[in-house]
Amino acid sequence: MNRFPFRCSAVALTMLIGLGADAAHLDGADIPTGGLTLQATQDTPTGFGNSSGTQESLGGSELNALYADIEGRKLTIGITGNLEANFNKLFIFFDATDGGEASLAGDNADGGFGEINNLQGLMFEGGATMDHGLRFELGGGFLGVRFFDLIDNTASDVFTAGGPGSLPAEAAGNSAVMVGWDNSNAAGVDGSSAAGAGTATTGIELEIDLIEAFGATQGDIGISAIITSGDATFLSNQALPGLNGASNLGSPSGQTLPVAVVPGAPIPEPTAAALLGLAALATASRRR
Q1: Cβ–Cβ < 8 Å for 210, 267
Q2: How far from the centroid of its chain's Cα atoms is residue 274's Cα?
Q3: Which among 140, 209, 143, 213 is positioned nearest to 182, based on CA atoms?
Q4: Angle at CA 274, nearest 5°, toward 23 and 215?
Q5: What are phi and psi of 97, to 5 degrees?
Q6: Which residues, 6+ apart, have CB-to-CB distance to 127 below 8 Å?
Q7: For the chain, what is the largest distance between any 2 Cα atoms, rounded to a whole number of angstroms?
Q8: Rounded Cα gap, residues 28 and 204, in angstroms
Q9: pLDDT confidence of residue 270
Q10: In a 3-state reduction of DSSP, which class is residue 16?
Q11: In which residue ranges of the chain is pLDDT below 50?
Q12: Residue 13: what pLDDT?
C-alpha cells in the first residue's frame, strides 16, 4: 500500500512547501524570543571555563538552554551558549528514525578526523537509539559544521568557514540543514553556578528538513547535546539536558547522556510516485 498517496492534498501541500520554502531567518541571536518551546535548561555550572564574550569565546564553553519544535517536516532548534575556539567539539545527537545506536560504536564517520569514534561506548537515557547527528568545531582559521549518519556511517559538511572571524553566521548550510551561529555569549552559567542559565540569548539555531536530513521520522525526536575536548576523548559537564550538577564526565565509555524528547507526528519517506506528483504540482503552480 502506498503510504504517501498523491491524492492526500494536505500532505502533498506540506511537501511542496517544504521543498520550496526559504529557511527562516537564522542568526543565532535572541533565541529565547523566537517562539520555540523550552525543552531543557542547564542545571550544572560549567567545568569547561567561562567565556568573556567574543566570537572566539576565549575562556570557555557552555550550553545554557535547549529550545525546539517540530512543525510539518521541519525541526527547528535553538541552543544558547558558546564554544571555545580551541577546537573543542559540540556534538548534537538525534533519535529521529528507526535504527541507530544505543551505545556508540567504533565504526562511525563524522566528516573530520574520526573523533566521533573516540566516543565509543557513550550511551543515552531511556533506551534512545541515536541515528544522526551534528558536530560543531571552531578554532584559529577554521570553523566547521558536519552532519553524520550513524546508520550508514557517512558524513558531510553542512558548511565550513575561516574561523571565528566568519561569525556570526546567518542561514548558512544546505537544503537539509541550515545554521545560524552567534558565538559571543557571555551570560548564562559560570564556573560556580547555573542560576543564570536562562539569561543567555545567543548561540546556535538550526532548521532541519526531516525528509532530506533523516529520510523519515518516527514522530517524536530525541535530542542530546554534549561539549567535548578537541579529540572527543574527554566529556565536559556541559550537556543538554543537564547533568544535575555533575563534574566533567571524562572518558566517554560507559557514560549515559540525558535526552530531551520533542513531540512530533511521524513523517514517512516519500515514494517515487509521490515525488513525481509533487514535481507535477510544483510545475503546474509555476504556470499559473
Answers
A1: yes
A2: 28
A3: 143
A4: 55
A5: -145, 180
A6: 102
A7: 62
A8: 5
A9: 77
A10: helix
A11: 1-22, 273, 275, 278, 285
A12: 35
SS3 21: coil
d(CA 228, CA 252): 9
Helix (H/G/I), strand (E/B), else coil: 222: strand
Report the C-alpha gap between 70 and 78 in whole angstroms: 12
- The Cα–Cα gap between 90 and 113 comes to 15
H helix count then E strand count, the chain: 3, 15
- For residue range 212-243, list pLDDT tens digits in order: 999 999 999 999 999 999 999 999 999 999 99
List strand residue ranges (DSSP E) for 183-286, in order: 203-209, 221-228, 235-240, 256-257, 260-262
- Give exposure, 123-154, as e/b (b: 16+ Cβ within 10 Å): bbeeebbbbbbbbbbbbeeebbbbbbbbbeee
Q: What is the pLDDT of residue 267?
A: 94
Three cell numbers, residue 96:
529521529
